C-alpha cells in the first residue's frame, strides 16, 4: 500500500482485429506496422535498407467492406505478467489476451462489434473517447441493458474521429477492469503523418500477491477514499517491460494509453525529446513539454513523435517519476548497433489532420459548474450521506466517499439516474470543474470531447481537446463543448474506486 503522504505529486506546469497492416518503406519493400514491444534484427536490417531509398512509411489502405464486423468474447483466462517463465495469473480477458485484441477501424466507416459474455456476471463495453450514439455507449441501465452471462450484445457505430482510443467494461468496472478487461482501439487517419514505425504502449498496473495471484481487497475503504487501487507491477501491452529496441535516426509515433485503475504516470524519456501530437485521440498543436515528462492519468491517451537521436548501441531509460520518492524505470530504449537510418531528423510535418469537432460558441455558451468533494482529508460534508469526511472511514462497505455538487452517485450506472443539468441540443456548454478535495481526479466525459480553455485562470496552450482531464488538488479547469449528441451521458472520475464511491454524475442533451 502506498501511503497518502508518499503520493504527493511533483508540481508541473501543464499539466482479433484485422492483423497488422503493411506499410511501404521503399519501392518493392513492405514491412508490417509493429505494435509489439520489440523488433527483430532482421526487421532492423530491412528497415535500414528501405529508408536508404528515402521513402517514408505510411499505412496501406485495405479494401473496406460495407460494415467492418468483429466479434469479441469476454471470459476468464490466464496471463503471465512477469515474463514467459513467470507464474500464471488468473484474469478476465477479451479473446483470451490481456490486453484484449487491438481493434483497428477506419475513420467514417461503420463498424459492428459483437460482444459475447462468457463471465458469470453481467458486463458491457464502453468505447472510451468515441463520439458515438448514446445507445452504444455501454453504461448499464442508462444506455443499454447489461449483457447477461451467456448472451451477446451488438455494438454498431461509425467513428467520426481518427486517433487513439480504448475499450473497457462499465459494469462492476473496478473489478472487471482490475482483472484485465481492457483493449486498444485505433481509428486510422486517411492521411497519417510520416513516421518509420507506429507503436502502441497500453500501460496497466496490477496489485499482485507473492504467488502472482490478484491481491484481494477490491473496493477497500482506504482505496475508495484515497488514491485508489494502485498496483505493485506495471506492464506494457500485458507484460513486464523488456527493452524497446530502436534504430538511430528513425522517427516513431508512440501511442501511450493508461488503462490502470488509479496509477498516474509521468514518463521521462532520457536523452530524447518527445513531441506531443494528440491528446485523447484529438490532434493538438505539436509541442514539446516544458519539463519533458508525458503525464498520463488513468484513461488518458497521448500520442508522441520521437526522433531517435541516441547513439547506436547505447541504452536510454524511460522513467516514471510521477510520485515523489517512488520513481522507477519503466523500460529502456535499446539502440541497435546498426548505422543510423538518417543523420538528421526527418524533414516532414508533425501536425495531424484535425477531426470534425464542432467549435464552441463561447459568447453564447450556457455555463455549468461541477464541484468535486469528499475523500479522506477532504474536510467536507457529503449531502445526503452524513458525517464529516475528515479522518472517518468514508467508502466503507461500498458506501459513498465522494460527491459532485453535494450528491453521490455510486456504482457504474443504472436506470433512472437524474441528470445534474440538461442542455438543449446544439448549445455550447462552458463547463467549470472545481476540485475541492486533497486528491487527483481524471474526470472523463462520455460522448464528447472538450476544448480545454484554462487551468486555474491561465489559458491552456496548443488547442487541446480531451475527454479525460486531470485535476490536481484544488485545481479549477474550464472547458467547453457543443452539446450535439442527444442522450443521458456520464461524467465521472476515472480512478475506478472514486467513481464507484460516488464521484460520478449524469447530464442530459435533449
UniProtKB/TrEMBL annotation:
<dbReference type="InterPro" id="IPR045087">
    <property type="entry name" value="Cu-oxidase_fam"/>
</dbReference>
<dbReference type="InterPro" id="IPR008972">
    <property type="entry name" value="Cupredoxin"/>
</dbReference>
<dbReference type="GO" id="GO:0016491">
    <property type="term" value="F:oxidoreductase activity"/>
</dbReference>
<dbReference type="InterPro" id="IPR006311">
    <property type="entry name" value="TAT_signal"/>
</dbReference>
<dbReference type="InterPro" id="IPR002355">
    <property type="entry name" value="Cu_oxidase_Cu_BS"/>
</dbReference>
<feature type="region of interest" description="Disordered">
    <location>
        <begin position="1"/>
        <end position="21"/>
    </location>
</feature>
<dbReference type="InterPro" id="IPR001117">
    <property type="entry name" value="Cu-oxidase_2nd"/>
</dbReference>
<dbReference type="InterPro" id="IPR011706">
    <property type="entry name" value="Cu-oxidase_C"/>
</dbReference>
<dbReference type="GO" id="GO:0030288">
    <property type="term" value="C:outer membrane-bounded periplasmic space"/>
</dbReference>
<dbReference type="InterPro" id="IPR033138">
    <property type="entry name" value="Cu_oxidase_CS"/>
</dbReference>
<dbReference type="GO" id="GO:0005507">
    <property type="term" value="F:copper ion binding"/>
</dbReference>
<keyword id="KW-0479">Metal-binding</keyword>
<feature type="domain" description="Plastocyanin-like">
    <location>
        <begin position="200"/>
        <end position="321"/>
    </location>
</feature>
<dbReference type="InterPro" id="IPR011707">
    <property type="entry name" value="Cu-oxidase-like_N"/>
</dbReference>
<dbReference type="Pfam" id="PF07731">
    <property type="entry name" value="Cu-oxidase_2"/>
</dbReference>
<keyword id="KW-0560">Oxidoreductase</keyword>
<feature type="domain" description="Plastocyanin-like">
    <location>
        <begin position="86"/>
        <end position="190"/>
    </location>
</feature>
<dbReference type="Pfam" id="PF00394">
    <property type="entry name" value="Cu-oxidase"/>
</dbReference>
<protein>
    <submittedName>
        <fullName>Copper oxidase</fullName>
    </submittedName>
</protein>
<feature type="domain" description="Plastocyanin-like">
    <location>
        <begin position="417"/>
        <end position="509"/>
    </location>
</feature>
<dbReference type="Pfam" id="PF07732">
    <property type="entry name" value="Cu-oxidase_3"/>
</dbReference>
